[in-house]
Amino acid sequence: MAFHEIRFPANLSFGSVGGPERRTEIVALSNGHEERNTPWAHSRRRYDAGMGLRSLDDVETLIAFFEARQGQIHGFRWKDWADYRSAPASKPITPEDQELGVGDGQRDSFALRKAYASGPAAYLRPIAKPVEGTVRVAVGGLPMREGVHYSVDTLRGLVQFVDPPALGARVTAGFEFDVPVRFDTDRIHVSVASFQAGDVPNVPVLEVRT
Questions:
Q1: 3-state secondary structure at position 67
Q2: Confidence category of residue 166, pLDDT binned at 50, 70, 90
Q3: C-alpha span between 2 and 11 (Å, rounded)
Q4: Do the Cβ atoms of 73 and 181 come closer than 8 Å?
Q5: Which residues form the DUF2460 domain (predicted)?
Q6: What are the percentages of helix, strand and coil residues in the chain, rounded to 5?
């Protein structure tokens, strides 16, 4: 599968519905207890792109985007308006939002990630598609300059340093990011009369691994 580095129109994804999905395998034991396991290390997100359509112009835009991706063939970027920043929604993005690791004096590449913590548990989500120009990095609490101290691979979500961070130095970053997705259907059914009456088409979108 090819991946097109293009974002689904953000004004259309704004009204979409969706979020993370987990897969849990549950076995009920004879004593009434359960064994629960998951084959997935990471959640997978699903969305409905049809919910953001507000006009026939939007429908035309959706169909053009769908055709250019050849249905399910090519992946693309998706802005999840409920979760697209390294910082909480009420706070500005800073270079110290998320910890990427600790320097050892030799390692010069760090993968972007976002932590989801609740109580004693936390989940680290890999961020593969940062938005170009939004990644801000700090080493040991000191802000670095992109193009001088580091570069960002927006295709894979990697921060590459010119000089490896010193031993024990915390490497942190703040950023905006997209979700890599594809259409989860090869058909779009639209009726102009039904759409004008308030019936929007169902256009499922599914997160992909990159």
A1: helix
A2: very high
A3: 24
A4: no
A5: 4-209
A6: 10, 40, 50
Residue 190 near residue 162, CB atoms below 8 Å: no
Q: pLDDT tens for residues 45-81?
A: 999 988 888 888 888 999 999 999 999 999 999 999 9
The H or E element containing residue 28 is: strand 25-28
Please give the radius of gyration of the chain, using alpha carbons only, rounded to the nearest integer.
20
Beta carbons of 126 and 198 less than 8 angstroms apart: no
Q: How far apart are CA 45 and CA 75, in angstroms?
A: 14
For residue 72, how many other CB atoms are within 10 A of its CB? Answer: 15
Per-residue burial over 14-30, b if 16 or more Cβ lie within 10 Å, else e, is ebbebeeeeeeeeeeee
Q: Which residues pair with 18 in a beta bridge?
A: 47
Sign of CA dihedral 84, 90, 93, 95: negative
Structure tokens at 166: 């010193």
| In the chain, alpha helices (H) | 10-13, 56-68, 192-196
Q: What is the pLDDT of residue 178?
A: 98
Q: What is the pTM of this model?
A: 0.91
Beta strands in 106-169 (DSSP E): 109-111, 113-118, 121-126, 129-130, 136-139, 142-143, 150-153, 158-161
Q: Are 129 and 157 in contact (CB under 8 A)?
A: yes
User: How many angstroms separate the CA atoms of 185 and 193, rounded?
Assistant: 22
